[in-house]
Amino acid sequence: MRTRTTTLLLALVLLLAGCAGGGDRDDGRITLRFQSLAWQDESVKANKALVREWNATHPDVRVEYVQGSWDSVHDQLLTSFEGGEAPDIIHDASDDLADFAYGGYLADLTGLLPARLTSDIPERSWEAATFGDGVYGVPFLQEPRVLIANATLLKKSGVRIPTPEHPWTWAEFRQVTKELSGEGTYGVAWPLKEPVSATLNLSLSTGGRLFHRGADGKVTVRFEEGDQVVPRTVRDQVGTDRSASPTTLGSGGSDTLPGFFAGKYAMVPLGFSYRQQIEQQAPEGFDWQVLPAPAGADGLAQGVSPQTLSVAEDSPHKKEAAAFVDFLLQPDNMVRLALGDWMLPTGEQALKDPALHTAEHGWATGTALAGHLRSAPAQSVRGYAEWKDKVATPALQEYYSGAIGMDELRHRMEEDGNLVLARYQR
Q: Quick one: pLDDT at residue 18?
């Protein structure tokens, strides 16, 4: 009886070992688990095809594709890290990495990646995945915020059409939205259900920084003049000019598309990847185009949180996992991933691909913005998630709705915000 029980327990242990993380099979072949957050059909197909191609040419290192979800990735990863069952290769976004990196859950990739890859991706992108002295992810996809415009309404109005070489200023953008408003149409619809990242990232163009790191390494919030231009513009468009729809302030980007197609809004500021939804959902004959976001004192600068590929610290096969990341991000493969997600690659060789420079669907406009993209202001700020949820989101929502003024917004962003961040910097 004891022998039988021992045998059953041993079998159970082996079964559990096979289900958790990467490992070695009985034939000596290494197995890595790659958790992807691809969700659009084109993107999922591109990722799965690349996994198949790797497996066909690397018989000693097999990769298993695991489907994850953006909706639950943070909590799911935290649970898997603490349970010792994290995937070997992890797809995430750079603004989700700080706590995982500082918590010791992600491997420092310094020295694991080939020079080809580290030199191909510019330093401004690497900054998004650098925490302290280590690099904890490879930034590979990014998307600027752009203006998706009803081309018919633009042509009818006679306003100047902006280009990346000659964009609108924020003041000009405000004036244009007034000219585009009337007869049941708002000049712009701001989908600000999640207002923080849009506000902070667009504010880089106006010199906003918000988070300031001192010589002691501690971060403080200062809501200065450059940080106020974008919020003031939105507030004035909604409350003073009546050129922005007040009802979309609590909406997500996809929620604005039916009204956009119906001519209720001439423009909608959206992430570059929304073009796929627009192309799929727009009624026949609907003419739309991609315009650069307005420029400020710092030109077309924007903050972005690139999508990243990381390696779990607990993975017993970090070298092999890094090799798979390098394979995924070969220039031709990076282009395939970017086209699948309707986003931009970070790699400079991939960005040269002719497929990303066509006028169709605004690819050329987006690619022209790539050199202006910077690490989002909050990337390395510990406690950012709590600050965003408890302080910045409700404060901005109340400001945009007209419930509070700029002085109160500044007070809450700074005073309340610094109290939150202080708990993470002791």
A: 41
Helix 225-239 to helix 170-179 angle (10° resolution) is 0
Specify whether the CB–CB gap between 210 and 200 falls below 8 A. Answer: yes
Q: Structure tokens of 333? A: 């493969």
Q: Pull the structure tokens for residue 426.
A: 């002791």
Element (H, E) at 27: none
SS3 161: coil
Main-chain dihedrals φ then ψ at residue 398, nearest 5 degrees: -70, -35
Do 60 and 24 touch, CB atoms closer than 8 A?
A: no
**Per-block average pLDDT, block size 10, for the chain (426 residues)?**
41 40 65 95 95 97 96 92 96 92 96 96 95 95 98 96 98 98 96 95 96 91 97 97 97 97 98 96 97 97 96 97 98 97 97 97 97 89 88 97 97 96 85
List residues bridging with 66 in a β-sheet: 35
The one-character DSSP state at 206 is G
Give the Cα separation of 33 and 68 in Å (integer): 12
Mind giving me the DSSP string for 335-395?
Answer: HHHHHHHT-EES-HHHHT-GGGS-SGGGHHHHHHTGGGEEE-TTTT-TTHHHHIIIIIHHH
Q: Residue 290: what pLDDT?
A: 98
The pLDDT, as a whole number, for residue 260 is 98
Q: Which amino acid is at 289?
A: Q
What pLDDT is attached to residue 14? 36
The single-letter DSSP state of residue 374 is E
Enter the tokens of residue 270.
């959206």
| % of the chain beyond a pLDDT of 90 | 85
The reported pLDDT for the residue numbered 27 is 67
- The predicted-structure confidence for 295-309, as pLDDT tens digits, reads as follows 999 999 999 999 999
DSSP 267-312: EEEEETTHHHHHHHHSPTT--EEEEEPPBBTTBT-EEE--EEEEEB
H or E, element range at 368: helix 363-368
Give the whole-angstrom CA distance, residue 310 versus residue 136: 6
